[in-house]
Design a protein that fits this description.
Strand order of the largest sheet: 1-4-5-9-8-7-6
Order of helices and strands: HHHHHHHEEHEHEEHEEEHEHHH
Bound molecules: 3,4-dihydroxyphenylalanine
Mean pLDDT: 89
Structural class: alpha+beta
Shape: elongated
């Protein structure tokens, strides 16, 4: 290596190429830097901040060059600098200890045609793959516990041959209430304190928009659109103007079910839900059906399961009754068939697909939060929406 920086006399491309070629050859000569000491000397020689050759070249050639020569000079200077840095990197990788060959294996000979392919590859790729390094740990997301429970419920019904249907969260009064046999001003509407969309009063009442208060409107949407047999589950978000407390949230989730066909009876409903509760909470769980009221089912029932915490003996969780109330259900009210048949007859005036003389069905609806809280023993619904990682990580 020479410390001498020759004087540049002309700046045409050929002269510049020649001057830089000499320097590049100097860099190349130093390619076999065998140890860390030699490398450091090479680095100082070329890249040293005060006396490094690149600094001297920059001072001697670049600074005094005429303006029009600065660009071609700078270009070549940068290429030279890259070459120096590349050389350093290359020799650095040569210092990485070689992998220990298996006994009796000559790495160089074991490679292609006995040539030293292994070392050649290593030179080309200064960062060889080190399979002994620990892998990058990825933390993929997990389904939210509510979503998990919702999927579990849906799965149980998929195994029974149900498929999934979805509907809009912004719904009309017709689908959310009227077609489900809640006439305007009917007191049953009060049980579902509704969030109305603004500026709807100019419309006929059935067309007014609201946030759906339950997933039941999708029953109607499905039956308007398709003929029996129907076996669907409808998971989704619902909204009510409820104050948040430990068991209520203004936004929550439901899974609705609907089965419509010829000869569907209340015992089909009982058998289906008994199976579903056993699938969700364990085969020991018992179910019982209590008379109840929903405008769109007749008869209607509340389903209770034997308390999964005390096995039915009575504890604080089941208020010492041995039973936990879980969902609503019933046989689809013929008034409901009549309401959406009217819609169907707008397309085909003779439509008789859902003649209640031939067609019957059952429906049910359950709150996902309530089921997830029972499954996991969670006492405050707010945990689900808090986004607190300490809570959520327990479900990973
Ligand atoms: N939609 C009812 C609610 O939100 C729940 C329900 C009860 C759904 C009975 C049904 C049913 O399909 O048959 O309170």
């Amino acid at each position: 290596m020479s410390d001498h920086i020759p004087q540049l006399t002309s700046y045409d491309d050929l002269s510049l190429d020649a001057a830089f070629a000499t320097l590049a050859a100097e860099v190349q000569q130093a390619s076999e830097l065998r140890d860390a000491e030699a490398q450091e000397a090479f680095r100082l020689h070329w890249l040293g901040r005060k006396q490094g050759r690149l600094k001297l070249i920059s001072d001697a050639w670049l600074k005094s060059a005429p303006v029009e020569a600065k660009k071609p000079l700078g270009l070549r200077f940068n290429q030279l600098k890259e070459k120096v840095e590349w050389q350093l990197q290359l020799s650095n990788s040569n210092l990485v200890p070689d992998p220990i060959p298996a006994p009796g294996v000559d790495i160089a000979r074991a490679t292609l045609g006995g040539t030293n392919q292994y070392l050649a590859d290593k030179k080309r790729n200064p960062y060889p793959l080190d399979v002994t390094l620990p892998g990058a740990i990825r933390t993929p997301g997990i389904p939210h516990p509510l979503l998990k429970t919702m999927q579990e419920i849906v799965q149980v019904f998929h195994h029974l041959g149900y498929s999934t249907n979805l509907g809009p969260q912004v719904e009309t009064d017709f689908y959310n209430f009227e077609a489900l046999n809640f006439p305007p001003n009917h007191p049953a509407r009060d049980t579902q304190d509704t969030l109305q969309i603004a500026h709807q009063t100019g419309k006929p009442s059935r067309d007014r928009l609201l946030m759906r208060t339950h997933t039941s409107p999708v029953q109607i949407r499905t039956m308007v659109a398709q003929a029996p047999p129907i076996r669907i589950v409808i998971p989704g978000k619902v909204h009510r103007n409820d104050a948040a407390d430990a068991t209520h949230s203004p936004i929550f989730h439901q899974v609705e079910g609907l089965c419509v066909d010829t000869n569907i009876t209340f015992s089909d409903l009982k058998g289906t839900l008994d199976h579903a509760m056993k699938a969700l909470f364990g085969s020991d769980v018992k179910t019982r059906f209590f008379p109840s009221f929903f405008p769109f089912t007749e008869p209607s029932a509340d389903v209770q399961i034997s308390c999964i915490f005390c096995g039915g003996k009575g504890c604080r969780k089941c208020k010492h009754s041995g039973w936990i109330e879980l969902l609503g259900c019933g046989m689809v009210d013929p008034h409901v068939f009549a309401a959406f048949t009217e819609e169907r007859r707008k397309i085909n005036p003779a439509d008789d697909t859902y003649n209640p003389e031939r067609i019957t069905g059952f429906a049910f609806g359950m709150g996902v939060e309530r089921i997830a809280m029972i499954q996991h023993g969670i006492s405050d619904i707010g945990h689900f929406y808090s986004g607190d990682m300490r809570f959520l990580e327990q479900f990973a």
